[in-house]
Amino acid sequence: MSKKNTDEIVVLLDTSGSMADQVADVKGAFASFIADQRKVEGRKATLTLWTFNSPHCIKIEWENLDLDRVVELELKPHGNTALLDAVCISIDSTGDRYARLPEASRPEKVIFMIITDGEENASKRFIKSDVLSRIKHQQDNYKWIFHFVGPDPSLFEEQIPRHQTVSYDQGRIGETYSHFSGLVRNSRVS
């Protein structure tokens, strides 16, 4: 049995060049998101943060870090948007990490957030059907909860229901992050 009342929030965050004009807003909104998640009563949470841009620049910034230890987000946007590669690599890596853990050490809930301000334009290894099959596998077998924030919230609609998506609005980043923070909070307490 997994660890009761524990959540891992996995965030896959676009850091492509189009984010350059939004750095201050994203950093502030992300800090507010973390502060909001710390307030969820009765549940312990950790954060895993992946960042991505070009296909060769998909990396883990923090892994399973207690929310109280999360510090200011560092962003250095550059490159293109290798969204499909990043989603597949981060899902596979996170799933592999859980597979190496005894069941009692795994979180009760995994909430996986995909956040991008742009469209896919750089993936080399994976296609959309690869993403959809991975999301379906984790939902069906391990009850992962996926949320998508992007310019086209319907991008993964075959697997991520519309009520679990948010439209990314560059002019309203604070509101966008506040909206998806509410979605994550609801996923954690339901």
Describe this protein's structure.
With 190 residues, the chain is an alpha/beta fold. The protein has one domain (3-189): Rossmann fold. It is 34% helix and 25% strand. The protein has 4 helices and 6 strands; from the N terminus they run E-H-E-E-H-E-H-E-E-H. It has a 6-stranded mixed sheet, sandwiched between helices. Helix 1 (23-38) packs parallel to helix 4. The mean pLDDT is 95.
Helical content class? 25-40%
CATH fold call: Rossmann fold
- CA(first)-CA(last) distance: 19 Å
Strand order of the largest sheet: 3-2-1-4-5-6
CATH superfamily: von Willebrand factor, type A domain
Structural class: alpha/beta
The main sheet comes to: 6 strands, mixed
Strand content: 25-35%
Q: What's the tally of helices?
A: 4
CATH class call: Alpha Beta
Whole-number radius of gyration? 15 Å
**Mean of residue pLDDT?**
95
Number of domains: 1
Shape: globular
Query: How many distinct beta strands?
Result: 6
The ordered H/E elements are: EHEEHEHEEH
CATH architecture: 3-Layer(aba) Sandwich
Uncertain segments are none
